[in-house]
Amino acid sequence: MANYRFGKHPPQVDYRTLRFKDYIKSSLPAPPATYNVLADVYKNLKTNDPTKLFPMDGNDTVGDCTCAGMAHAITTYSGLVGKKTIMPQAAVLKLYYHLTGGADTGLNELDVLNYWRQNSVDGVEILAYVKLDPKNHTNVQQAMQLFGGVYLGFQVQENAQQEFQNHQPWTPGPLTNDGHCVFAVAYDATGVTVLTWGNTQQATWAWWDECVDEAYAILPPQAKEKNFAPGYDLAQLQEDLNEVAS
What we know:
Helices cover 35% and strands 20% of the residues. It is of the alpha+beta class and 246 residues long. The protein starts with 34 loop residues before the first strand and ends with a helix. The model has no long low-confidence stretch (mean pLDDT 95).
């Protein structure tokens, strides 16, 4: 079996983290039954090969999954506006070691997100990020539809690598002490699709409820545009973000 690494630390709690549900307006419709952001990305970039668009980024040798997930988000956001942006593996690893202080220790997702909120990464700046309640599937689905994906972390089940290798959906199982970060880009009635280890991976909602321990909606550069994400109070979120930052 090929080598796959993890590297996400247990969830970090910060009372200042803004919550997705606090900015939903009454006009925000229910999410569609199915959604796949990659359909638009593939159409815009004229390719449907996830192995080319979302490479391993070193996560077969080091625990940089939190940075690899960020790189996959960048490719997704760029693809939605017709721009092909694939962060070089060397850049992903350079950022990873910068954030860890030079050792292969893995990272907290909040540390990665806070860095990205304050710094441009591969030429991409984000507006903000907000915390999701993983148990609220409706909010998770709304976040994917509105913002192009969900940056999430989970406690790894024993068969995660084997199921990935065998192209089988992730299902609940005995949990290990490992944590992993992925970027979710699609959902339907059966579960979700995430980007990890240089490919896509399906997972059941039962797996989600058993394993996912943190999830975030990232507001991409497009969120600065007028009339982006109608039904979501971006103005109030920005105001609150500025207050927290000060």
